């Protein structure tokens, strides 16, 4: 497939790959490396094996990371190394503003504060 014949946009594929792109840098590097060197199907299979055997992922996370790795490989296959590398570099930018904003959000707004009746 070429850029014009691709079914999904790079932006959609990037969203689908977020499970890998948001991993800690060491794990992220492993799965990005797989996506950068394997076909989408082979990337999925290898990522699943690595996540299951030595990644410390829960069973539902294994499949999520495997699928995300596959989507990264689809970006490389359908759009080429230039767009693949752009997606990887864009996702590695610091997210301090997002982290700061989410740190102040109460995860359970119905929870009572200490001292409230």
E-strand count: 0
Helical residues, percent: 55-70%
C-alpha-based Rg, rounded: 17 Å
Give the overall shape, derived from the CA principal axes: globular
Mean pLDDT metric: 81
Query: Main beta sheet, described?
Result: none
Order of helices and strands: HHHHHH
Structural class: mainly alpha
**Oligomeric state of the chains present here:** single chain
Sheet-strand content, in percent, reads: under 5%
SS summary, helix count: 6
Q: Kindly report how far apart the N and C termini lie.
A: 62 Å
Task: Point out poorly predicted stretches.
Answer: 94-113
Brief summary:
This protein has six helices and no strands. It is mainly alpha-helical and 117 residues long.
Describe the protein in words.
This protein has 117 residues and is mainly α. The chain has six helices and no strands. Residues 94-113 have low confidence and may be disordered. It is globular and about 30 Å long. Helix content is 67%, strand content 0%.
SSE arrangement:
Layout: H1 10-16, H2 18-21, H3 25-35, H4 40-54, H5 59-91, H6 96-103
Keywords:
mainly alpha, 6 helices
């Amino acid at each position: 497939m070429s850029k014009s014949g691709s079914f999904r946009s790079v932006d959609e594929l990037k969203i689908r790959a977020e499970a890998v792109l948001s991993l800690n840098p060491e794990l992220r590097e492993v799965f990005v490396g797989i996506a950068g060197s394997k076909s989408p199907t082979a990337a999925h299979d290898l990522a699943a094996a690595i996540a299951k055997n030595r990644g410390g992922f829960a069973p539902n996370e294994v499949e999520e990371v495997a699928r995300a790795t596959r989507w990264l490989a689809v970006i490389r296959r359908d759009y080429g190394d230039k767009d693949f590398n752009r997606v990887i570099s864009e996702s590695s930018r610091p997210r301090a503003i997002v982290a700061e904003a989410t740190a102040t959000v109460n995860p359970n707004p119905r929870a009572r504060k200490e001292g409230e009746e």
